Amino acid sequence: MQRRIPLIALAAATTMAAAALTGCTSGGATELDTDADVTITWWTGQSDEAESILEGLAAEFEDLHPNVTVAISSGASSTEELLQKLSAGFASDTYPNISYSFGSWASELESSGRTLDLRDQVDDPSFGWDEFSEAARATVQPTGEKIIGFPALVDNLSLIYNKTVFDAAGLDYPTEEWSWDDFRDAAKQLTDPATETYGYAYSVSGSEETTWQFWPHLWQNGGEILNDDGTAAFASDAGVEALEFLRQMAVDDKSIYLDQTDTKFAQLFAADRIGMMTSGPWQLYDLNTAGTQYGVTVLPGTDGDHQTVSGPDIWALFDTQDVNENYWSVELLKWLTAPEQDLRWNVEFGNLPLRASEIDSPEFQAQVEALPGIDIMAANNENAIKSRPTVAGYVGLSEAIGSAISKVLQGQGDPKDALEGAAQKADEALSDN
Description:
Residues 412-433 are annotated as: Disordered. Residues 1-19 form the signal peptide. The chain is α/β, with parallel strands linked by helices. It contains 17 helices and ten strands. Strands 2-1-3-10-4 form a five-stranded mixed β-sheet, sandwiched between helices. The protein has a three-stranded antiparallel β-sheet with strand order 8-5-9. It has a two-stranded parallel sheet with strand order 6-7. The longest helix is centred in the first third of the chain and has 17 residues, at 48-64. It is globular, with a radius of gyration of 22 Å.
């Protein structure tokens, strides 16, 4: 998937070195003194405009709390490198108080033994914990043992449809009442080999784009990604039924554009060559720039279940063995993720708001004017009930099932055999971590 926030430019070497040196060393304050001078190290995982916004917010927090200094930096030359740098910091006791982290890292971070635990605090009304989506809350509680931070970014897959393509076919636009049968029927009618127009598009690159598009089909059919014992569960009857549905669309109906690149399908949609795609808020800016006439609604449903998949990322909190640092780290993130600040952070940057209470704000409504459909996507967070696993072996699991899905959609295999083979590979990846 493509997101706007986690794109990072290389920070200056001196800044990076300073950020590392201002991290934890053992032997900090053991009794809380909220008036004591304290420095909080914050690795944002951002660059350019996003980093500038956060730096401004950090300065504002410092003005509100003169005893607090926020040592803010990108943290690494790429988001992916943050995990490696954090691991090295755990070994040398030079890790930050706060770091942007992909949600898939959450279990690994918790297993480090370095994270804070917010379980005893989130019932405080000042946290507004219930305003975060279920998927976002689940991502920061990866094992159920601890709550290791705050949601940083939320998104979801929604159904985006091309009005020009629908109008040309004489079809009514999708609604929130649609079933997957409605979806399949429309995709067939939208497909026109003469003009090389397709009803739908699906990634067959085998990447996480391939995989996470599949999870709503699995969940809506009653399936799960993992069993209670941590082994792969997707090769179930529900998984086979879900993949067979997509196989029929791709192979029998030939109504799906099979994208090897993860990027071309969005370009073709913008050029009125694809009728529907399931994607997220990161697509809307490009569609508006291209002048594409589009609409947005929730995913089609199974027996009224319109469950979607979300990809929350998090602000991970780390215990630096200094109670003053720990206290102010939590206070900083409570403040940052409050509606007043999130409107100037995620919403201003064109992402979905973290909290449901922001949807009716003038600031978000201004974004709705600029990016039509983003309000539907924000409301669709209510359908983000389950989260993708945050276990360390998820990358291997994703690669295994992504490859299986890609082959089946290209007519190279049976869904049951493909998923069972993928489950074996996934279990190997899971057992290695």
